[in-house]
Amino acid sequence: MSVTLRKARTIIRKTLEKGREMELKPLSVVVLDSGGHVQAFEREDGASPGRFGIAQGKAYGSIMLGLPGSAQKARADEQAYFMIAMNGVYGGKVVPVPGGILMRDRKGVVIGAVGVTGDTSDNDVIAGLAGIAAAGLTGDA
Protein backbone atom coordinates (compact mmCIF):
# COMPACT_ATOMS: atom_id res chain seq x y z
CA MET A 1 0.00 0.00 0.00
CA SER A 2 1.10 3.54 -0.67
CA VAL A 3 -0.05 7.03 0.23
CA THR A 4 -2.92 8.33 -1.93
CA LEU A 5 -2.85 11.64 -3.77
CA ARG A 6 -5.75 12.85 -1.63
CA LYS A 7 -3.85 12.14 1.59
CA ALA A 8 -0.66 13.64 0.13
CA ARG A 9 -2.50 16.88 -0.62
CA THR A 10 -3.96 16.92 2.91
CA ILE A 11 -0.50 16.39 4.40
CA ILE A 12 0.94 19.27 2.41
CA ARG A 13 -1.95 21.64 3.14
CA LYS A 14 -1.90 20.92 6.88
CA THR A 15 1.90 21.06 7.10
CA LEU A 16 1.88 24.50 5.50
CA GLU A 17 -0.97 25.64 7.77
CA LYS A 18 1.01 24.53 10.83
CA GLY A 19 4.06 26.38 9.53
CA ARG A 20 2.06 29.59 9.17
CA GLU A 21 0.53 29.08 12.63
CA MET A 22 4.05 28.76 14.06
CA GLU A 23 5.23 31.74 11.98
CA LEU A 24 7.95 29.69 10.31
CA LYS A 25 9.95 30.73 7.29
CA PRO A 26 8.37 29.65 3.96
CA LEU A 27 8.23 25.86 3.77
CA SER A 28 8.52 23.34 0.99
CA VAL A 29 6.88 19.94 1.42
CA VAL A 30 7.16 16.77 -0.65
CA VAL A 31 5.28 13.51 -0.20
CA LEU A 32 6.85 10.34 -1.61
CA ASP A 33 5.11 7.02 -2.11
CA SER A 34 6.50 3.78 -0.71
CA GLY A 35 8.77 3.40 -3.75
CA GLY A 36 10.35 6.83 -3.31
CA HIS A 37 8.44 8.50 -6.15
CA VAL A 38 7.00 12.01 -5.80
CA GLN A 39 3.28 11.93 -5.12
CA ALA A 40 2.91 15.68 -4.49
CA PHE A 41 5.01 18.79 -3.80
CA GLU A 42 4.43 22.43 -2.92
CA ARG A 43 6.78 25.31 -2.25
CA GLU A 44 5.43 28.37 -0.46
CA ASP A 45 5.91 31.82 -1.92
CA GLY A 46 9.27 33.11 -0.77
CA ALA A 47 10.88 29.67 -0.37
CA SER A 48 14.08 29.31 -2.35
CA PRO A 49 13.84 27.20 -5.52
CA GLY A 50 16.46 24.73 -4.29
CA ARG A 51 14.15 23.59 -1.51
CA PHE A 52 12.61 20.88 -3.69
CA GLY A 53 15.90 18.97 -3.74
CA ILE A 54 16.34 19.31 0.01
CA ALA A 55 12.78 18.20 0.82
CA GLN A 56 13.03 15.29 -1.60
CA GLY A 57 16.43 14.25 -0.17
CA LYS A 58 15.08 14.23 3.37
CA ALA A 59 12.09 12.06 2.41
CA TYR A 60 14.05 9.88 -0.02
CA GLY A 61 16.63 8.90 2.58
CA SER A 62 13.85 8.04 5.00
CA ILE A 63 11.99 5.76 2.62
CA MET A 64 15.06 4.11 1.06
CA LEU A 65 16.82 3.44 4.37
CA GLY A 66 13.70 2.89 6.47
CA LEU A 67 15.04 5.48 8.90
CA PRO A 68 13.58 8.88 9.77
CA GLY A 69 15.81 11.91 9.36
CA SER A 70 16.70 12.07 13.05
CA ALA A 71 18.01 8.48 12.97
CA GLN A 72 19.96 9.20 9.78
CA LYS A 73 21.57 12.25 11.41
CA ALA A 74 22.50 10.21 14.48
CA ARG A 75 24.02 7.55 12.24
CA ALA A 76 25.94 10.20 10.28
CA ASP A 77 27.24 11.69 13.54
CA GLU A 78 28.42 8.27 14.78
CA GLN A 79 29.45 6.65 11.50
CA ALA A 80 29.90 9.27 8.80
CA TYR A 81 31.38 6.65 6.48
CA PHE A 82 28.08 4.72 6.51
CA MET A 83 25.99 7.70 5.40
CA ILE A 84 28.61 8.65 2.81
CA ALA A 85 28.39 5.11 1.43
CA MET A 86 24.56 5.22 1.43
CA ASN A 87 24.61 8.54 -0.37
CA GLY A 88 26.86 6.91 -2.96
CA VAL A 89 24.47 3.99 -3.34
CA TYR A 90 21.55 6.38 -3.87
CA GLY A 91 23.31 8.78 -6.22
CA GLY A 92 23.80 11.59 -3.71
CA LYS A 93 20.05 11.96 -3.17
CA VAL A 94 20.02 11.40 0.62
CA VAL A 95 19.86 14.42 2.96
CA PRO A 96 20.38 12.85 6.43
CA VAL A 97 18.84 15.44 8.74
CA PRO A 98 15.54 15.83 10.62
CA GLY A 99 12.63 16.76 8.40
CA GLY A 100 12.47 13.39 6.66
CA ILE A 101 9.48 11.62 8.18
CA LEU A 102 8.33 8.05 7.55
CA MET A 103 4.54 7.69 7.23
CA ARG A 104 2.72 4.68 8.58
CA ASP A 105 -0.85 3.52 8.12
CA ARG A 106 -3.07 2.36 10.98
CA LYS A 107 -1.44 -1.07 10.90
CA GLY A 108 2.04 0.45 11.22
CA VAL A 109 3.05 -0.29 7.63
CA VAL A 110 5.31 2.31 5.99
CA ILE A 111 3.37 3.81 3.06
CA GLY A 112 5.67 6.69 2.15
CA ALA A 113 7.67 9.59 3.49
CA VAL A 114 7.36 13.35 3.86
CA GLY A 115 10.19 15.82 3.48
CA VAL A 116 9.84 19.30 4.96
CA THR A 117 12.37 22.11 4.66
CA GLY A 118 12.56 25.86 5.06
CA ASP A 119 12.93 26.55 8.77
CA THR A 120 15.01 24.78 11.42
CA SER A 121 14.99 21.01 11.10
CA ASP A 122 13.15 20.69 14.42
CA ASN A 123 10.42 23.08 13.26
CA ASP A 124 10.21 21.31 9.91
CA VAL A 125 9.48 18.08 11.82
CA ILE A 126 6.77 19.67 13.99
CA ALA A 127 4.96 21.01 10.92
CA GLY A 128 5.32 17.73 9.02
CA LEU A 129 4.02 15.61 11.88
CA ALA A 130 0.96 17.87 12.11
CA GLY A 131 0.27 17.34 8.42
CA ILE A 132 0.66 13.58 8.68
CA ALA A 133 -1.63 13.40 11.73
CA ALA A 134 -4.27 15.48 9.92
CA ALA A 135 -4.32 12.80 7.20
CA GLY A 136 -5.04 10.09 9.79
CA LEU A 137 -1.56 8.60 9.59
CA THR A 138 1.33 8.38 12.01
CA GLY A 139 4.79 9.79 11.46
CA ASP A 140 8.16 8.50 12.56
CA ALA A 141 10.48 11.51 12.66
Strand content: 15-25%
- The H-and-E topology, N to C, reads as HEEHHHEEHE
Distance between the termini: 20 Å
Mean pLDDT: 97
Judged by helices, strands and strand pairing, the structural class is: alpha+beta
Q: Enumerate how many helices there are, as a single number.
A: 5
Read across the widest sheet, the strand sequence of neighbours is 2-1-4-3-5
Percent in helix: 40-55%
Radius of gyration: 14 Å
Strands, count? 5
The parts where pLDDT drops under 50 for at least 5 residues are: none
Q: Globular, elongated, flat, extended or rod-shaped: what is the shape?
A: globular
Largest sheet: 5 strands, antiparallel
What does this structure look like?
With 141 residues, the protein is α+β, with helices and mostly antiparallel strands. Helices cover 47% and strands 20% of the residues. The protein has 5 helices and 5 strands. The chain has helices at residues 5-21, 51-65, 69-78, 80-89, 121-134, and strands at 28-33, 38-43, 100-104, 110-117, 138-140. It has a 5-stranded antiparallel sheet with strand order 2-1-4-3-5. A hairpin with a 4-residue loop joins β1 and β2 (38-43). The longest helix is centred in the N-terminal third of the chain and has 17 residues, at 5-21. It is globular, with a radius of gyration of 14 Å.
